[in-house]
Specification:
Layout (H helix, E strand, L loop, with lengths): L14 E5 L6 E2 L2 E2 L3 H15 L3 E5 L16 H11 L4 E2 L6 H8 L6 E3 L7 H4 L3 H8 L4 E4 L10 H12 L4 E3 L1 H14 L6 E5 L8 H10 L2 E4 L3 H8 L14 H10 L4 E2 L4 E4 L8 E4 L9 E5 L1 H11 L4 E5 L12 H12 L3 E5 L1 H9 L8 E2 L3 H8 L5 H4 L5
Parallel strand pairs: 1-4, 1-7, 4-6, 5-6, 7-8, 9-10, 9-15, 10-11, 15-16, 16-17
Antiparallel strand pairs: 2-3, 12-13, 12-14
Helix pairs in contact: 1-2, 5-6, 9-10, 11-12
The structure holds adenosine-5'-diphosphate and magnesium ion.
């Protein structure tokens, strides 16, 4: 990696402002999944061990530039404190006089968590004044929020520039470093056969990823809701299945250009309602009766995918192959997860729901890497730069 990391800077006795991705799910006012908090611990511990005072910041949800009580970071501070085994002081804003006063009083080894950065409209607007206010809080900036690195926001991009302007370093945290190194394996010099599996709800958000992967992979296996639009492009009627009419033509041209490389399901599980207990059956994709919808890939498709993946040396997977949230339609997703776990290959899982599915079957440890950033990992796989990373100091 050509960016500096926290290993390259001296933080002893300094205040270090760290952008983390604490955009975690909350249930009844408590953190219901702390994977992202866990993922930030190595960086926080490293900085504390090196004698820094650590000022953390993150966004949470979509408060749209104003204070939303339910999106305060207090439950996050509480969970972080438990995981770190030390107090974490939570402030009620992320900029302003009282925040500056509180951070100036910090000592080496202290941890402070600022309030949700998206309570300020300047965050998403990447407002230079807001970024400069954040930059006054510390001497060093660290970006460890891989999940937000594809956004040019004040806490990811603007603040890096602002810290540099006042002579301080802006460097990557250990999570960002690890994500970039592992994803680069799949992008820069993948060992072949290189297979991509793409699923999820929609094609539209992933068209440029499909195009880019088609150029670099030996096969691109398509499942999930996104396959339906391809079926429609092939002239099949797919009943009440999720279809994006406005990208049918794009799907058609992808099929024309890449015949042989794109592998589509040969059978699908359909249901007469969007319900775990609906009537379900397996049919060919051109045999979906009206009133029915495709909710999973079928057993023949799982075998086809299995043969394609046997012997693969690199596999990237983004997007579940069915509505895995309902057990009846989780078979395709979970079987493919088990298959990947057995392969002697570099396996990289990106995408919020895909990562959740792999975790749900307890196979996250069996994969080479499960990315914490859905959008960011996709953007990286497309070969695009991540603004939050681009803004950091070069080595
Ligand atoms: P990721 O977060 O892994 O990138 P997406 O956000 O693109 O994945 O899509 C995930 C969603 O796709 C899941 O919630 C799943 O229920 C849905 N999905 C998968 N297959 C289908 C299908 N056949 N019909 C409707 N939704 C589907
Ligand atoms: Mg998603």
């Amino acid at each position: 990696m050509n960016k500096k990391t926290i290993r390259d800077v001296d933080v002893q006795g300094k205040r270090v402002l760290v952008r983390v991705d604490f955009n975690v799910p909350l249930k009844e006012g408590e953190v219901s999944d702390d994977t992202r908090i866990e993922a930030a611990l190595p960086t926080i511990r490293h900085l504390l061990d090196d004698g820094a005072a650590v000022v953390l910041m993150s966004h949470l949800g979509r408060p749209k530039g104003q204070v939303v009580e339910d999106l305060r970071l207090d439950p996050v501070a509480e969970r972080l404190s438990t995981l770190l085994g030390q107090p974490v002081r939570k402030l009620d804003d992320c900029v302003g006089a009282s925040v500056e006063e509180a951070v100036q009083a910090m000592e080496s080894g202290d941890v402070v968590l600022l309030e949700n950065t998206r309570f300020h409209a300047g965050e998403k607007a990447n407002d230079p004044d807001f970024a400069a206010q954040l930059a006054t809080l510390a001497q060093v900036y660290v970006n460890d929020a891989f999940g937000a690195a594809h956004r040019a926001h004040a806490s990811t991009e603007g603040v890096a520039q602002a810290i540099r302007k006042k002579g301080g370093p802006a460097v990557a945290g250990l999570l960002v470093e690890k994500e970039l190194q592992l994803l680069a394996k799949a992008v820069e010099n993948p060992e072949h056969p290189f297979m991509a599996i793409l699923g999820g709800a929609k094609v539209s958000g992933k068209i440029s990823v499909i195009e880019s992967l088609l150029e670099r992979c030996d096969r691109v296996l398509i499942g999930g809701g996104m396959a339906n639009t391809f079926f429609k492009a092939m002239g099949f009627e797919v009943g009440d299945s999720l279809v994006e009419d406005d990208v049918i033509d794009t799907a058609k041209s992808l099929l024309d250009r890449s015949a042989g490389k794109l592998v589509l399901p040969v059978d699908v599980v359909i249901a007469d309602a969007f319900d775990n207990d609906a009537q379900a059956k397996v049919v060919a994709p051109n045999e979906v009766p009206s009133g029915w919808r495709i909710l999973d890939i079928g057993p023949k498709t799982i075998s086809t995918f299995e043969s394609a993946l046997r012997g693969a040396k690199t596999v990237t997977w983004n997007g579940p192959l069915g509505v895995f949230e309902m057990p009846t339609f989780a078979v395709g997703t979970f079987d493919v997860a088990r298959l990947l776990a057995e392969l002697e290959a570099t396996t990289i899982i990106g995408g919020g729901e895909s990562a959740a599915a792999v975790q749900q079957v307890g196979l996250a440890d069996q994969m080479t890497h499960v990315s914490t950033g859905g959008g960011a990992s996709l953007q990286f796989l497309e070969g695009k730069t991540l603004p939050g990373v681009a803004a950091l100091d070069e080595r």
